[in-house]
Recover the amino acids of this structure.
C-alpha cells in the first residue's frame, strides 16, 4: 500500500511538472506572436497597445498610439508637438475627450499648422520617457515636447518585480487572473465592450485604496527615501532637457496631480489605513520640490494642482476608483495647458 501510495504521488508530481512546463512553453510561444502586457518585459513597449486596436470605438494608429495616423515627415510650415507621457497622455477616456486631442483642436483654430503627436504609452516613467524620445521622438523633428508628469507615480522607477514573475509566464497568468477576479470593479459591461462609462468604478475600493497607499511616502515630511526618488527622477528629466536643447526643441512639463492631492476625503482614508496623522503629511510637497528643481534647470512647467483643488469643489475630476481623469478633468487640463503654451507657438511658419 505504501509503495502504491508513493507511486501515485510520484505520478501526480510528474504529470503536474509536465503540465506546467507545457503551459509555460505554450504561453511563451503565444506571447512571441501576440505580446500581452501581463507578461514581464523590461521594454517601454510592454503596455503599448497593438496597431489598429479599437479603444472606445477609435482605432490606435499604425504605431500603436491612441492617435490619428501621423506622417513621419513634418509638413512645411507645420509646428509639431510630441505629447509624451504615461496613461494620462494615452488617454483613459474616448479619444475625442483626451486633453491632447482637445488641445490640438483648440490651438489649430488660431495656429492652423499646429499638431500634437500623442505618444502616450501606459505604464511609463521618466526613464522610459527619455528612451521614447530618443528611439522614436527625435526622428519626427518636433518643435516642442509636452511631457505629462504624473505626480502619483512618476517619482518612482518601474517597480521591482519578484523573481518568479520575471522568469515564469505561468506565474504571471495566475497573478493576472487573481487580480481580475478580486480587484477589477464594475466597468459598466452591460452596455458592451466598446462603450465608455465615465462614472463606472475601474477597481474595487479596497484595491484602489491599496494602490493609492503606495504614493503616501512622497507626502511625508522629511522622508529621505523620497529625496532619493527625486534625485533619480531629475536625472532623467535633466537628460531630456539636454537633448531638447541640443536639437532646438522647446520642452514644457505638465505636472499632473494625484487624486489624493485634490480630494481630501480620499487622502484622509488612505492616511488612516496607513496609520499616519494628518500633520505628518503635506499634499503639495512633491509639487513644490519638483517645481523648484525644474526652475533650477530652466525647464518650463505648469503645475495643475492649485486649479484642480479649486475645481474639485464643483464636481469630480477623476474616474471612480481610478487614478485617471474623467472627461471633465481632461477638459479642465486642456484649458490650463492651452493658456500656458499658446503664446509660445509661432503664428506663422518658421
Amino acid at each position: 500500500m505504501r509503495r502504491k501510495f508513493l507511486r501515485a504521488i510520484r505520478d501526480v508530481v510528474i504529470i503536474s511538472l509536465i503540465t506546467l512546463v507545457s503551459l509555460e512553453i505554450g504561453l511563451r510561444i503565444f506571447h512571441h506572436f501576440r505580446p500581452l502586457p501581463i507578461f514581464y518585459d523590461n521594454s517601454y513597449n510592454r503596455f503599448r497597445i497593438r496597431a489598429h486596436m479599437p479603444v472606445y470605438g477609435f482605432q490606435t494608429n499604425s504605431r500603436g498610439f491612441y492617435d490619428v495616423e501621423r506622417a513621419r515627415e513634418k509638413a512645411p510650415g507645420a509646428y509639431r508637438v510630441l505629447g509624451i507621457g504615461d496613461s494620462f497622455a494615452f488617454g483613459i477616456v474616448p479619444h475625442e475627450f483626451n486633453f491632447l486631442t482637445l488641445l490640438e483642436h483648440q490651438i489649430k483654430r488660431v495656429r492652423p499648422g499646429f499638431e500634437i503627436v500623442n505618444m502616450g504609452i501606459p505604464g511609463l516613467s521618466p526613464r522610459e520617457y527619455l528612451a521614447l524620445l530618443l528611439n522614436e521622438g527625435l526622428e519626427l523633428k518636433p518643435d516642442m515636447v509636452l511631457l505629462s508628469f504624473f505626480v502619483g507615480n512618476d517619482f518612482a522607477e518601474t517597480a521591482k518585480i519578484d523573481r518568479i514573475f520575471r522568469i515564469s509566464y505561468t506565474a504571471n497568468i495566475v497573478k493576472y487572473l487573481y487580480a481580475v477576479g478580486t480587484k477589477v470593479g464594475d466597468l459598466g459591461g452591460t452596455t458592451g465592450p466598446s462603450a465608455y462609462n465615465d462614472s463606472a468604478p475601474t477597481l474595487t475600493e479596497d484595491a484602489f485604496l491599496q494602490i493609492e497607499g503606495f504614493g503616501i511616502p512622497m507626502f511625508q515630511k522629511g522622508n529621505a527615501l523620497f529625496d532619493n526618488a527625486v534625485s533619480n527622477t531629475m536625472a532623467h528629466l535633466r537628460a531630456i532637457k539636454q537633448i531638447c536643447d541640443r536639437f532646438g526643441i522647446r520642452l514644457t512639463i505638465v505636472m499632473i496631480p494625484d487624486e489624493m492631492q485634490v480630494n481630501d476625503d480620499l487622502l484622509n482614508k488612505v492616511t488612516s489605513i496607513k496609520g499616519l496623522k494628518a500633520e505628518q503629511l503635506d499634499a503639495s510637497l512633491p509639487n513644490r520640490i519638483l517645481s523648484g528643481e525644474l526652475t533650477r534647470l530652466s525647464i518650463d512647467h505648469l503645475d495643475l494642482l492649485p486649479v484642480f483643488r479649486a475645481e474639485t469643489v464643483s464636481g469630480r475630476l477623476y474616474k471612480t476608483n481610478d487614478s485617471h481623469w474623467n472627461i471633465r478633468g481632461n477638459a479642465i487640463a486642456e484649458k490650463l495647458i492651452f493658456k500656458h503654451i499658446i503664446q509660445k507657438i509661432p503664428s506663422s511658419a518658421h
User: Anything to note?
Assistant: The first strand starts at residue 54 and ends at 55.
